[in-house]
Amino acid sequence: MKKRAIQLFGIIFFSTLVFSCKKKNASPASANVQCPLMKVDGPKGNIRNYEWVGNKLVRVFSNDSIPTTLVFRYNNKNLAETMEVITENSSEKYLVTFQYGDKNSITKSLVTLNGIQFMTNEFSYNEKYAVTSIKTTVELFGRKVTGKTRIEYTNNNVSKVYSAIGDDLETLAFTGDKYDNKLQFCPEVYKTAALGFVGIANNFFSYFGENNMIEGKVYDGKGRVDQQTQINYVYNTSGLPVQSETISLKNGKSKLEVNSYQFGCK
Predict the structure, then answer these.
(1) Residue ranges per domain, the chain?
(2) Which of 12, 14, 18, 231 has the smallest number of Cβ neighbours within 10 A?
(3) What confidence tens digit (pLDDT) does each residue in 180-227 have?
């Protein structure tokens, strides 16, 4: 049962990694305030939409295999205080609460299912306030499991991530093999969302850095390659992507997805 719940969380978060947005007085809470990402379309039509209010992203609508909505609520410092995950045809309520420390850095994320807290992540930072280590505690069905995550950076991008459960030796969990030279076009709140699920899925570590990952790998619990991803972006003259071609290799099967991006430049 515990494994099933964790797998479900991983699927929910992975399905929302590449966001898009629905404009409502759009102004993103990120470095690129002039050109917020508005939506992403795929081969069969719209995939994701964003909804902004003022300078805050308040909702992300995902039309993937599991239709999902992320709802963000903010404190009086305009920092994301909670993130709710709503899935279609499900009465289960997933809620992540974020706690902040120095330099508005997140010190903890608390995850609850139907009002019952089952996971806590605690974060440590380097002198640049980049996340370098995470302690994860999961309590489900009377059992308690702890895990550790260690993150390495190269040129301000995540290069390697190692993880361990309990007293086991750490194994490789993720590698960011290659990044482009463009600043990340995803909203800053992506990093906040990722910190709510860091103890479950390894697919999002690339969002912790400065640039866009174009080659990376996810590893299984034994340190073996589980999935390889290669992304080719086509950029406009402003350095924003207008199209991407993603090739994923998992279980010997290759998947190609071509997406287009729309921004609400002022």
Answers:
(1) 2-263
(2) 14
(3) 999 988 877 877 887 876 654 556 788 888 999 999 999 988 889 999
CA neighbor of 258 nearest in space, from 223, 240, 219, 231: 231
CB 121 within 8 A of CB 134: yes
Write the DSSP assignment of the chain as a string of letters: -HHHHHHHHHHHHHTTSS---B-SS---SSS--SS-EEEEEETTEEEEEEEEETTEEEEEEE-SSS-EEEEEEE-TTS-EEEEEEEETT----EEEEEEE-GGG-EEEEEEEETTEEEEEEEEEE-TT--EEEEEEEEEETTEEEEEEEEEEEETTEEEEEEEEETTSPPEEEEEEEEEEEEEP-S-THHHHHHHTSTTT-SS-GGGGSSEEEEEEEEE-TTS-EEEEEEEEEEE-TTS-EEEEEEEEEETTEEEEEEEEEEE---
In this structure, CATH architecture of domain 2-263: Beta Barrel (2.40)
Gap between the Cα atoms of 142 and 235, Å rounded: 50
Tokens of 10: 């991983």
Q: Report, in angstroms and rounded to the nearest whole number, the Rg of the chain calculated over CA atoms.
A: 18
DSSP sequence for 49-86: EEEEETTEEEEEEE-SSS-EEEEEEE-TTS-EEEEEEE
Beta-bridge partner residues of 167: none
- What residues contact residue 220 under an 8 Å CB cut-off, 6+ apart? 226
Residue corresponding to tokens 């640039």: 211
The predicted pLDDT at position 203 comes to: 61
- Rounded distance, CA 78 to CA 73, Å? 9
Q: Rounded to two decimals, what is the model's pTM?
A: 0.82
